[in-house]
Each structure stands twice: as C-alpha cells, then as structure tokens.
C-alpha cells in the first residue's frame, strides 16, 4: 500500500497542481524572500512564491511583461566592485568589518578563506556549515566567500548565497552585503539600503538556523559541543565611496527586517489556507489561455503599492488592475494608511464633496476641510484674475 498522505505532502501536491502539470518549481532566493517581507499583506505573491510559480513567465503570458531585474551593465559593474572588495584574500573587507563592527577585537593580521566548493547546493551548504564550525573553533578572523545557506521555507529548503560571511575571533558571525550603488558623504539611497537590509535579514535567519544545528550536537559529541554561535544582527553594507570605486562601509541594524521576514516566512507555512479559498481547478501555468489564466490570477487578492514595481514581476499587471478599480493603494501605502476605511478614489472624492462618509471619521473630516480650503483658494484666485482684467 502507498504511504499515508501527510498534511505536508498534501500541501506539496496542491502547490504542484497550482503550478501546472510538468512545470518545475522556481526556487526562492534571498531577493524573493526579502520582497515578501516588503509586502506582507499580498496573498497573491505569497501563494505564487509558495507554489514556485515563475512570475516573469506568468506576467508575459498575461500580457504585462515585467521590466523587473538588473541590467547587464549593473551586473558587470557589481561583480567588478565585489572582486575589488575581496581582493588580497579579503584583507580590505576584514578591515572594514573590524573597524565598523568589532573594533575591540584584535586586528585581522591575515585572512583565513576556506574552500567551500562541493557538488550541488546540498553539498555546498553542508561544506559551509563545516567551515563555520571550524572557524568558530579556530577563534580567528575567517572570511567565507559566497557560502551556501539552507533555509527552511514552507517545509522545503531554499538555498541562499550571501556575498560573504565573516567569523569573528569570539566566534560570532556577520553577514556582509556588497552593493554597487554609491555611498555619498557616508549615506546612501534609503530605498536601496532598505532593500539591502531586507535581503541581509534573510541571510541572518538562515545563519541562525545553521547556528542552532551546530549547537544541537549528537549525544556522542555532547562534551565537545558548546552554546550555539551568535549571529550578529548588525550587518556590514559595503558600497563605493562617493563617485569612486573605493569601498566604504556602514553597519546596518536588521533586527526589524529580520522580525518582519520571520513572520512572513511563518505565514508562508500557512499558505494552505490561501489555497483552500481558491476555486477548484485553479492553475497558474503560463500555457493556459489568457482569459483562463487571468481569472486564476484574479482569484487571489493582491495588495498593490508603487513599491512593487521594484520588487515583483507581476507589478505591471497588478498596477493596471488596481488603477482600473480605483484603489487608493495605487497611490502609495502612506496615503492608504491616512485614508482609513476609504479604499477607493471614488470613496475619497465623495467624502471630500460631502456626499458620502461619516463626518465623525477623522479622515472624512480632513478631506472635507481640505476641499473647503481648495474651494476658497480657487475663489480668491478667480477674483484676483477678474480684478486684473
């Protein structure tokens, strides 16, 4: 007899049905997981990413191809800058980590850069875990160049590859993010820094999972094992200084981003609830007719915001639908928060005109007051123009 179907295997089967027959799952990476944290209220993105749907192919099939992604020029420039930062065995990178994050430790005299090569992502993640343990035991500065980390996402491993992880002499671990956008006078574009922080927070979560596994040694090694290594919540962001190609760095606290990402990943484990609300036979295969595919996508609620344009392949499709419905979220999350229960542009205009809305609602009262001030200003301007004539 076949083995009994567990809840986890049933969920995997359901997600495979949503993805489409013979359609391979698209593995989640750190950028995708960070984007989930940037828009935690979007059920559409949660179910599509949880099912491993290729959203770029889906967007093209819907007639709204995505412009999301990195240009080849930016990719080449980023690789060249990263190679410069890690030159000479990572000496400059370790110097920046020591200066910005651990000035009380002994300066790094030389860099230990272990070989992390192995076969397949599973082999590389196991080799990375072994290298981390050896670095903790060595009690010296160690640089792990492009380690492979495994993070459990909805019951399946997602393999992540940070730019670098540094092990301090005290055994603690630091995530290093290397970006090619400039840091001008010690500060960078807040939106880009925020995106880098969310991505680094994903790596911090993955490292914490590795640390817990290293701290939970088998019984035969219990005497040798100690407490789990500490993963630092201040990561190092390395960028070009001003308009040069010289590296500079800043420490970024990612505790808030880590907490948000952790909650969102926990929410992904409950995507069964989202899947249960979908009509029978729902499928997101790009091979389906456009009308059928559109109906399937629209059966899952989306929470569009302008920030999605920089983080999601379906942003253009969702923007068109949001604008057609007159949703105020298409104007920005901050404005949506200010308007309270007014969810459409039509509701907002009606409240401002005084034809709808509760007058005791602070948002409605503010809109009506703003409409009055606007009318007064236009009346005064009209009088002034008439007087000039």
Question: How is this structure best summarized?
Answer:
With 389 residues, the chain is α+β, with helices and mostly antiparallel strands. The protein has helices at residues 7-19, 30-38, 43-50, 55-61, 72-85, 87-101, 120-138, 190-215, 255-268, 271-276, 290-298, 315-324, 333-338, 345-353, 362-388; strands at 142-145, 149-153, 156-160, 164-167, 173-178, 234-240, 247-253.
Could you explain how this protein is built, in words?
With 389 residues, the chain is of the alpha+beta class. 49% of the residues lie in helices and 10% in strands. The chain is built from 15 helices and seven strands. The chain has a five-stranded mixed sheet, sandwiched between helices. A two-stranded antiparallel sheet has the order 2-3. Helix 8 crosses helix 9 (255-268). The longest helix is centred in the last third of the chain and has 27 residues, at 362-388. The N and C termini lie far apart (94 Å). The model is unreliable at 219-223 (pLDDT under 50).
- Gyration radius from CA atoms, angstroms: 26 Å
The span between the termini is: 94 Å
Mean pLDDT: 85
Poorly predicted regions: 219-223
Q: Topology as H/E string?
A: HHHHHHHEEEEEHEEHHHHHHH
Secondary structure category: alpha+beta
Question: How would you characterize the largest beta sheet?
Answer: 5 strands, mixed
Helix content: 40-55%
Tell the overall outline. Answer: globular
Helical segment tally? 15
Beta-strand residue fraction: 5-15%
Say how many strands there are: 7
Strand order within the widest beta sheet: 1-4-5-6-7
């Amino acid at each position: 007899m076949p083995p009994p179907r567990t809840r986890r295997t049933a969920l995997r089967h359901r997600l495979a049905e949503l993805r489409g027959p013979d359609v391979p799952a698209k593995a989640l990476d750190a950028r995708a997981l960070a984007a989930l944290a940037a828009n935690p209220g979007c059920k559409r993105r949660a179910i599509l990413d949880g099912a491993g749907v290729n959203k770029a192919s889906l967007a093209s099939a819907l007639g709204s191809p995505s412009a999301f992604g990195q240009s080849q020029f930016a990719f080449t420039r980023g690789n060249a800058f990263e190679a410069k930062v890690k030159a000479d065995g990572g000496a400059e990178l370790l110097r920046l980590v020591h200066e910005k994050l651990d000035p009380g430790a002994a300066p790094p005299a030389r860099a230990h850069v272990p070989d992390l090569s192995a076969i397949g992502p599973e082999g590389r993640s196991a080799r990375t875990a072994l290298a981390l343990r050896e670095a903790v035991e060595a009690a010296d500065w160690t640089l792990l160049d492009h380690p492979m980390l495994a993070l459990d996402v909805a019951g399946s491993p997602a393999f992540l590859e940070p730019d670098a992880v540094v092990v301090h002499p005290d055994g603690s671990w630091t995530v290093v993010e290397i970006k090619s956008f400039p840091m001008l006078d010690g500060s960078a574009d807040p939106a880009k820094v925020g995106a880098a922080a969310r991505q680094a927070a994903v790596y911090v979560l993955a490292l914490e999972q590795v640390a817990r596994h290293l701290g939970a040694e088998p019984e035969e090694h219990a005497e040798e094992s100690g407490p789990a290594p500490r993963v630092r919540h201040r990561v190092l962001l390395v960028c070009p200084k001003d308009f040069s190609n010289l590296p500079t760095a800043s420490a970024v606290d990612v505790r808030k981003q880590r907490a948000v990402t952790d909650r969102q990943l926990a929410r992904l484990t409950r995507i069964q609830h989202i899947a249960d609300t979908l009509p029978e036979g729902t499928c997101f295969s790009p091979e389906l007719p456009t009308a059928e595919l559109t109906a399937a996508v629209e059966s899952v609620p989306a929470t569009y915001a302008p920030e999605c344009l920089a983080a999601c392949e379906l942003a253009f499709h969702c923007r068109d639908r949001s604008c057609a419905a007159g949703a105020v979220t298409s104007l920005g999350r901050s404005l949506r928060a200010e308007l309270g229960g007014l969810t459409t542009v039509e509701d907002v205009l009606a409240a401002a005109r005084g034809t709808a809305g509760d007058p005791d609602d602070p948002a409605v009262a503010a809109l009506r007051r703003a409409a009055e001030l606007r009318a007064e200003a236009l009346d005064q301007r009209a009088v002034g123009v008439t007087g000039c004539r």
